[in-house]
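Handout, section 4.2: multi-component inputs.
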Amino acid sequence: MSEKLVQSTGNGLHSSIPKLNVAVIGAGLVGSLAALNFARKGYEVDLYEYRQDIRTAELVQGRSINLALSQRGREALAEVGLEDEILSTAIPMRGRMLHDIKGNTSIVLYDPCTKQCLYSVGRKHLNEVLLNAGYTSKSLKPFQEDAEAKADLIVGCDGAFSAVRQQMIKNYGFNFSQEYIEHGYLELCIPAKNNEFQMPANYLHIWPRDTFMMIALPNQDKSFTVTLSMPFKVFSDIKTPKDLLEFFIKYYVDALPLLGEERLIKDFFKSKPQYLLSIKCNPYHYKSKAVLLGDAAHAMVPYYGQGMNAGMEDCSLLFSIINQTGITLDKALLQFTESRWRDAHAICDLAMYNYVEMRDLTKRVTFKCRKFLDTTLFRFFPTIWVPLYNSVSFTTMPYNKCIANRKWQDKILRNIFYAVLSGALVTGTALYVMNLQNFDR
Amino acid sequence: MSEKLVQSTGNGLHSSIPKLNVAVIGAGLVGSLAALNFARKGYEVDLYEYRQDIRTAELVQGRSINLALSQRGREALAEVGLEDEILSTAIPMRGRMLHDIKGNTSIVLYDPCTKQCLYSVGRKHLNEVLLNAGYTSKSLKPFQEDAEAKADLIVGCDGAFSAVRQQMIKNYGFNFSQEYIEHGYLELCIPAKNNEFQMPANYLHIWPRDTFMMIALPNQDKSFTVTLSMPFKVFSDIKTPKDLLEFFIKYYVDALPLLGEERLIKDFFKSKPQYLLSIKCNPYHYKSKAVLLGDAAHAMVPYYGQGMNAGMEDCSLLFSIINQTGITLDKALLQFTESRWRDAHAICDLAMYNYVEMRDLTKRVTFKCRKFLDTTLFRFFPTIWVPLYNSVSFTTMPYNKCIANRKWQDKILRNIFYAVLSGALVTGTALYVMNLQNFDR
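Output:
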């Protein structure tokens, strides 16, 4: 890494970070977006990728092939002028369609008031659009373990098992945790039938089953990508096609004919369930030399649909800081860490929590009551009472603030509950006493 | 690593783990103890160390030069027949001697009932005794990054920054966290004077100062090793000898003449404060091929004096499992992980908590009351009411059980408190009413 000093030119009009050589490691969604941002600002950018160029590659097993794009990702795309292009082919999902164990469905809209929704986008398509905006296949550099390269700034966008982070972890004061969950996931497919979707397309489909669940997101080609999440133990107990079909008849009876028995058996047994992990660290930067973005900084379990969105928001935040007048790169990176780590830790925790909500709570009456209360209050006070899911998915409110908001709402609802209860008690007692007096007369 | 299979001979009489080649990485306290255990059981053991042999080395800056040996370490030493040799030169510490800001001292015995105590031992001496029991300087193998070696089992005793763990961290399902605290430490020295200790020798001396503290342990040569623990910010605010002396006059007035101004200034400014971190992971093993012991598995902040003791206890546990009849090595290592990780995580947390207790709570009245209650109950029910500190330091009760015990004791004391309060209230009311009646007459 070059030891070239980064100094403020302090002209007070423009960012005083001189145009440096930037090496972006990883040409995934966050890496290609970060590279595009740096390039648009006039930096010399080298984008490195150790996999094959996604534009010429077959789909890689084990990386979900569609994703839920929400507000944070949309704004980051808008900043590089790509939001419209992406949304034009994305499939809006207006709410959750819940499938119960008998195959009955019910709908919970994400936002009945302002009609905001998630967008199902293909990972490959999105990545291609981002790469095409700045890179030909030729300009993408291969990233190899023993290769040497020089850069003023290394931007680690190399995912949950980041090689850049692997170097930073040795630094004193670098806090880090990786936590695997005891559940794995496996992707299946509900194909199109007669060139039509086999289920309503504009929903995120969920089959909540307490300790495990299945979800499905619509694809452009009218298929659904289905993700089966459950404890590794449950996966390994399914040893034969017969076990598998019995399992699906018991738990996912309505999905079985859509998946198709033959295809299901093939898909299920051709690959092993994938691990899921949560990664937190702090700081995200090393002096003015390196910074981590996206999964490299904060991998999370996929249950809030915020992994990609949070990674793209990293870019928004980083460049809003770098664009400040008079800031030096070392200060900018420090400020990025300081203004980001609490929010990133918060969304990692929320994602972990949402797994419980999705597979279990969505079925419960208390959850539905709360959802109703939240929606009603949101309708009357749309700027004040933004429910947690909506603030996370449909605003760019800092994640930590979303949680603080929720706590404040919990407190109010609790107080209202007690007030109503006390009121009822007082009224009840008063009526009873009056009744007694009437009786006395 | 050799791929030789480890198979049970299943004779049902002896451990069925065949005698393998074992590579113990790290010849520190835990590594040399582990190597000794393996060697005594007839294994082929290679002990690797990347530092110079401690027997021929000068003291290494930044590793504390004396340590508090307690029950768990003692038992592990007894198992290899070395406890008596170590205790014969160790200095018993019967309690904490607290130094207040004015220089007044008070004593809190660890165990006024059964008179158990901690033993201050020199790291170098202890390590030498352990090495001499099995290894000449020649038989110790150098451990180099690029060297190749073969072994059936790798035992990682290579400390908080373990190279063995660095390989295991890449495995799916390996949970890991490293957490630095915002306090650093620096070692100072209170030398002997006229060949005598300058303070009472049989205590662990503590200068609690809320957000920071200083402690001192006695050495064989009648000096004390003093450890100054405080936020890095406070360290860095002390820029000149004048700052330093003012700081000591303000906070450690009684220690200043014992440390000696000139020596203090020299010791303080010659080295930087050291970082402290807590490391947790799970599992500790990889199949039948590798296992982590000591700091490599669970580094902790030094404030419970359990780092070495827990590491030595790892050896006791591992060999008690390996000694089971009919157990295979892969099962033994799995069992080691499963029966150890919760306790190791617990002592890491306790050590973090004890930093607060030592620097702050020891001064408080509530702490002293609790200590008095604990001691009194312990005196009357020595097998039932073992206070937390005593169960951790003077028994081999699993650390997690020690915490569960404490919670149970907290609950009882809380209930007693409420009962006494209610009793007092009832009695008071009764007396008041009787008084009223007397008044009526």
